[in-house]
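Supplementary Methods, section 5.1.

A reviewer requested that the exact input to the structure prediction be made available. We therefore reproduce it here, unchanged from the version used in the analyses.
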Amino acid sequence: MARHGNFLGVTALAIALLMGGAGPAPAATIVIVNNDGAGEGFNDPTSVSPIGGNPGTTLGAQRLFIFSHAASIWGAILPSNVTIRVLAQFNPQTCSATSGVLGSAGARSAHANFAGAILTNTYYQQALANKLSGSDLSALEDINATFNSDVDNAVCLGDANWYYGIDGEEATDIELLPVVLHELGHGLGFATFASSSTGAFLDNTPDVFSHFLLNKSTGLHWDEMTNNNARKTSATNTGNLVWDGSTVNLRAPQVLQHEPEVRVLTPVSIAGSYTAIEAEFTGPIDGTGVTADIVLVTDAVAPVNDGCEAFTNGAAVVGKLALIDRGLCNFIDKAVSAQANGAIGLIVANNVAGAPIPMGGVNPAVTIPSVMISQSDGTAIKNALLSGVVSATLRRHPTLLAGAHLDGEVKMYAPSPVEPGSSVSHFDVTAFPDLLMEPGINSGLHDGVDLTHQLFIDLGWLSPVTSVEPVAAVPGFRVRSAPNPFSPATTISLNLPAAGRTRVIVYDIQGRLVKRLLDDWMPSGPHGIAWDGTDDHGRRAAAGVYFSRVESNGLRAAERLVKLER
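The structure derived from this sequence is encoded token-by-token as follows.
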């Protein structure tokens, strides 16, 4: 018997200055259900001029056009023969002159053990459950979405208003389209029903999103953890909570750039790689980078290292990497001042404990590379400067991806302390380029859905098997396993037409990583990669269907493996 719960899984977006059914399903139809009263929200009669491809002539009509446009984008990507209904409204939300909630959305009910469910005893968001079952499992609308009508008022976010065009030309306003795409993403499945504050599952039942959440520190997925406290701790394990789905992590190297780093060269006592997050307004950062001494900026007004007033050591900054504390002025002002004083790069040190944060804003006049590092790393550099010269290179890391763990999995947002409504159910803010499902809206977003598409494949919206490229038609590129079926072990044989970095990874039928067999530079020619039937933690994998995935020099192939009982 199917189990379901009425549930509004709301995930807020804030701003601060598989297997499917028996056959292919048609493109989903997503319908916006207007839940606003007369004269407000979608029904606001205020006259406006068409803008940026939006033909609406009233404020309400322009809002509805954007929602319908976002629905058409998701509908063209996701297959379902069950209409997806979104109950939507514009209402005043928490907001001030500098920060506010833009919108929130979530599934209206959760369902488990329905016909077509991929995982048993596991909750699915209503729209995804309907897709998998091929039927409407609830009389409720599938998604509830609320957006902040106050953004169009001067008291909310200063001079910024909603931008209702679809051309990406929002200037200093806030483009509504990516915000709607983001919130619909939550309602369609990009969220866990588990509490990030307590770790408790809804009705003590795991959900499909939690099935793919992996704590790298313990090697356990959220649905494998036996107590709430383990999940609660994992929700604040910054940098070590990752998405363990094959489709996302295989696509990540084509989406994410290599992460920036500040590599301190001297003195030897603090030499090494320091994690950095590049600013939204940064100048180019490449693999070679810029190398120079680091100079701590001073000004005449306390706090004297925040670069908010005229530099008192401007001459010393020329040709150097300027180190400035996060402080009382905006980040762009720091960059403009550093550049005007001749700096060739900007390093901002956080002024609070924890990881560095993204630095937002747009100013094409900024041409120097600009990053933030943590408070502790900034302190280490400043202490070393007290007794001598510190030299460093600001560059892109040669192997690590921005937003990915060193093992390659894409990071999920797990700040400490926990941020209800934002923690866990978002990609991490270290991702670059910015991803649609990060917890804050960024000006680089428009109408793309980046890795969210692949995450929905992992969840079951589309079959991970059909998303795998067939063996490439390249002479000499072959992948074959024997024995297959097998017990207890098999050998994956591959012939590489050219030398290059090669990955061989085994996934289960739900697309969750089981075993990394190879990630190394391999010469051309034949190779045999053995799989002993165990997972990455040495546990024997259960009998069933698995898939090997091979990547080398841009070529990809997959093979179905059948493991038998011993």
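The first strand starts at residue 3 and ends at 6. These observations are discussed further in the main text.
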